[in-house]
Each structure stands twice: as structure tokens, then as C-alpha cells.
Specification:
Length: 84
């Protein structure tokens, strides 16, 4: 016998929430470390992509879109050191 559907959905929701907390925490730490080296700008872009995925997974698509845009801005900053 399988688990009740509501239990499976609740577990899935908790998993998405845990993923979101990890993704957003990573993004914030990379943002805080940007002044220590350019590689952290690239890691921040990765954190934005991870956060964007969380936004789409959680159903908050406007958040997902904004984080996707921020990721592009961060990659542009990484590729063009004169923009720092």
C-alpha cells in the first residue's frame, strides 16, 4: 500500500521549502563575499539560478523570473570587471 496523497504532498512541500532555504542562504552568503573575489560574483549568479528554480517550484513565478534576471546581471558583472 502507498502513502496517502496528502502525506506525499506535505513531504514534497517540506522538501521544496528546505531547498529554498538552502538556495537563498547560499545566494546571500555569496553576495556578502563578493568583495573578496570575482569568483563570488559568479557563485552569486549560481545562487540566483538556484533561487529562481525555488521560485518556480514553489509556484511563486514572479520571484523565479526576478531571480533569473538577477542571475543574468551577475554574470554580466562577472564578465565585465569594469562594471564592478
Amino acid at each position: 500500500m502507498g502513502l496517502p496523497v496528502c502525506l506525499t504532498e506535505a513531504m514534497s512541500s517540506v522538501g521544496v521549502t528546505i531547498y529554498g532555504v538552502c538556495a537563498l542562504s547560499f545566494m546571500m552568503v555569496m553576495y556578502a563575499l563578493e568583495r573578496r573575489g570575482r569568483q563570488f560574483i559568479l557563485f552569486f549568479a549560481l545562487g540566483c539560478l538556484l533561487s529562481s528554480a525555488y521560485g518556480f517550484l514553489s509556484g511563486a513565478w514572479p520571484f523565479g523570473v526576478v531571480e533569473l534576471i538577477w542571475s543574468g546581471i551577475a554574470v554580466r558583472r562577472y564578465l565585465r570587471p569594469d562594471l564592478i
